[in-house]
Amino acid sequence: MRTSTLTIIFLLLISTVLGQNNTEAPTDAPTEEPTEAEVLEINSGDTAWVLTSIALVMLMTPGIAFFYGGLVGRQNAINTLMLCLITMGIITIEWVLFGYSLAFADGTPGIGDLRWGGLKGVNGDPNPAYGATIPHICFAMFQMMFAIITPALICGSVVGRIKFQTWLIFIAIWHIVVYDVIAHMVWSTNGWLRGRGAIDFAGGTVVHISSGVSALAAAIVVGKRTGTGETKNPVILPWNVPFNILGAALLWFGWFGFNAGSALAANKQAGIAAANTTIAAASGFFFWSLIDRIIKKKFSAVGGAMGAVVGLVAITPAAGYIVPGFSILFGLFPVIVSYIAIELKEKFKFDDTLDAFNCHGLGGIVGAFMTGLFAAPEIGGAVGAFYGNPGILGEQMLAIVITIIMAGGETSIILLILKYIPFIGLRVSTEQELSGICLLYTSDAADDLLC
Question: Is 21's pLDDT higher than 60?
Fold first, then answer.
């Protein structure tokens, strides 16, 4: 009896000790160490601003659709809208499946791995590298809107003559081999160009130079519009100037999310980026209109809208890095360069129909270089040449050159391959091009006001 009692007491003591050990064991185990995501706290104000910015940037893709759609001939208006808007479907799927992971997961300095494929592990917890106070999924969706609009910008150089199904194949391939790679090198935590010191606040190289140069390459490979001479391009009057102005207004409005949202927080840098955005846009609008008045003796609504967009493009890499007063210059010098390029376009043997390269390519190049001059350490931490760091100009130029080579070269290769694949090809027939291709690819062209 005594032995049984002692046995029971011994077992109770053992179970008590084991229970205490089981309770305390996790404290000593390495897995109990709080993760970075658990230490970080989500800030509701920052999250609300990024969610708002997602919606603002999403609105920019319909904006570019209206901007381009108002400039083409009436018989190609709906097709042009669709060339822009279809990216919202294709690129969203690509981004979710593997695009986001290729662009932002660690991987190598040149491309990310597939750890976040299918958005695995991209959840409601913050990632300290990509927004320490917002859910990681918000950052992924914010960047998805950039990914969507970038290929839409390219179509302005080839509207009215490229096959719609070829365009679908092209943007799917282009996004993987061009956009995802450049985005990784410039923005990823272990990206090669970022590691060297190149700066791009919201997409001067990643979005605008890549799309603008790709547009130039596409215009050359696809070829001129039917009816062009050896050097002269056909003059197409905009069928709907209000559409074009509406598109520019939507772009200007959405660009607040594009630039100020890139601060990833509702903070002073976001406020400065917002100020720089609208100042540069207004400056571009004013100076383009002024140049039109001086040279052509008339103002132009379409020209003013183009100037505003050039200013917005140029300020994009600098929005969160420069003192707001200097943003006026980002609406001046890039506008001068783009204006001259458009006036001299007839001297070159390519047909960039809606001046995608002259606007986005040249505006992005000039803006990226100027960012290296004016970046102020007290604004965004980056130190520009005018503040004692001339070496940054070399890194900016390297980023510009790498982006030009990759975007131009790979775009040409993709299109040349598609050109010679049976049953694909690049262009619609001459008859279809001359009559307009709205009815060829869409069933929405019953209204003769459009097609």
Answer: no
